[in-house]
Design brief:
Blueprint (H helix, E strand, L loop, with lengths): L2 H18 L4 H4 L6 E7 L10 H6 L8 E7 L12 H6 L21 H12 L4 E7 L7 H4 L3 H16 L17 E5 L17 H23 L4 E6 L3 H7 L2 H4 L5 E4 L32 H10 L7 E6 L1 E6 L14 E2 L8 E3 H4 L8 E5 L4 E5 L4 E4 L2 H14 L3 E5 L9 H9 L2
Parallel strand pairs: 1-2, 1-14, 2-3, 3-4, 4-5, 5-6, 6-7, 7-14
Antiparallel strand pairs: 8-9, 8-10, 8-13, 11-12, 12-13
Length: 428
């Protein structure tokens, strides 16, 4: 083992120990030199039983600068809507599941996740909350909605009215005002394929820029009225072909406060070969050329003209897995028969579950030079990020001069927020 590798292992181990002793929430933000933004999924309160109260009690909230609430879809009518009003502003939470420890009561102005976000912000005054629009299954109608100047104005106005001004359907006007501090655009993807059925046009590339300009104009107008700075961010793809097809890189950062860059899903169980999904660099012996990695993705955005400080690196809180894996290097690059079984979906598993596998016969393997880890038991293979890997990525963010880290998503972390604490330790 080389000296630099030994130092990295020692530093990662030390960071894991340090983050276990959490500072008081009021102190944990530090000077917020780096952005630390994480997604909270609307549907996580159901089968996953992951609540915003868990974000607070685990210590994660104290270490974040931004919370993205996912997702608000764009409808076929070209307006913003709620995918689940019950989760967003109707469902009552018990004292146990409430951020402030007080049960919701009948007749209070607003309930649901939005009220819990408001409570989370009260306990963490420097935390900003953004509504994330679109997502993998909510991006089908973006292309239609941004086709003309009039349609863009209509879409942006509806989004601001619903989510920023807080005019929530069925509740008194403005009751949700002040909960969200801005908008995060998750159009997956302008000008190129995303989920089956998405509308795609070549002109999406220019229209995405025009959509950002419209959001920036309307948010700034409202901000002048409210004496408040509203944020505008976007989720950006890893693949160079998708960057080229959908983004005028030098133009979009005139309007964005920052962009979160996809640093995962480089490979997955849709392929029949075990591989890395989120490596810092392409591993030696990789069968695909060219291949995806964090560094190649970040370099593509920088080469296109993106400001380094406005690039926020995405980190996965889940792994991709295969079964029937034979050969390769301890499974890496070995052929597979199909996706590994997962709790919620085949081929995908939360970090909190994967971290228990070494006690069940899996061995942890690391490629420290190229920044990735995997689990293998001779048959099943999982590529994932653990605290040592995300700490290494934090060091990469610092060395590369990037703006910070984004995490998808908080429900994948363990009850101690081990991944979030490791990222925070690296980005002090």
């Amino acid at each position: 083992m080389r000296g630099s590798t030994r130092r990295l292992v020692a530093a990662a181990a030390a960071a894991t120990c340090l983050v276990a002793a959490a500072p008081a929430p009021a102190q944990a933000h530090g000077n917020d030199k780096y952005t630390k933004v994480a997604y909270f999924t609307q549907w996580g309160i159901y089968g996953r039983d992951f609540q915003l109260a868990d974000v607070q009690s685990s210590g994660a909230a104290a270490r974040l600068t931004h919370l993205n609430y996912a997702f608000g879809p764009v409808t076929a009518d070209g307006v913003c809507a709620s995918a689940d009003p019950w989760a967003d502003w109707q469902t009552p939470f018990s004292a146990e599941n409430s951020v402030d420890g007080v049960a919701d009561v009948a007749g209070q102005p607003i309930s649901g996740n939005l009220n819990q976000i408001a409570e989370l912000k009260k306990k963490n005054p420097r935390l900003k909350a953004l509504i994330s629009l679109g997502g993998w299954t909510g991006s089908a109608h973006f292309s239609d909605a941004v086709l003309t100047d009039a349609s863009r104005k209509k879409l942006v106005s509806s989004c601001i009215d619903l989510w920023i001004k807080g005019n929530l359907t069925g509740l008194p006007g403005g009751v949700g005002a002040g909960i969200f501090d801005g908008v995060d655009l998750d159009w997956e993807w302008p000008g190129s394929a995303g989920n089956d059925g998405n509308v795609i046009r070549p002109e999406d590339k220019q229209n995405f820029t025009l959509l950002l300009a419209e959001f920036r104009a309307q948010l700034d107008k409202l901000g002048r009225q409210n004496k408040k700075k509203y944020l505008l961010t976007a989720f950006l793809p890893a693949a160079p072909a998708k960057i080229e097809a959908g983004f005028e890189v030098k133009k979009i950062f005139k309007y964005l406060d920052f962009g979160t860059v996809q640093g995962y899903d480089f490979h997955g169980s849709w392929e029949l070969r075990a591989n890395q999904q989120s490596a810092l660099r392409v591993p030696a012996g990789a069968p695909d050329n060219p291949d995806f990695s964090v560094d190649s993705t970040i370099n593509a955005w920088i080469a296109g003209g993106a400001p380094r400080k406005e690039l926020v690196l995405g980190v996965p809180y889940y792994g991709q897995g295969w079964t029937g894996v034979t050969g390769g290097r301890n499974g890496l690059f070995g052929p597979a028969t199909g996706p590994a079984p997962g709790v919620f979906a085949a081929g995908s598993e939360d970090f909190k579950t994967l971290q228990k596998l070494p006690a069940q016969g899996f061995q942890v393997h690391r490629d420290l030079r190229n920044g990735h880890a995997w689990l293998y038991d001779g048959n099943t293979f999982w590529t994932y990020d653990d605290p040592a890997v995300v700490f290494q990525k934090s060091l990469y963010i610092r060395a590369k001069g990037l703006g910070g880290a984004m995490m998808w998503s908080l429900d994948g972390d363990d009850a101690n927020a081990s991944l979030t604490k490791a990222i925070s330790a690296g980005l002090r």
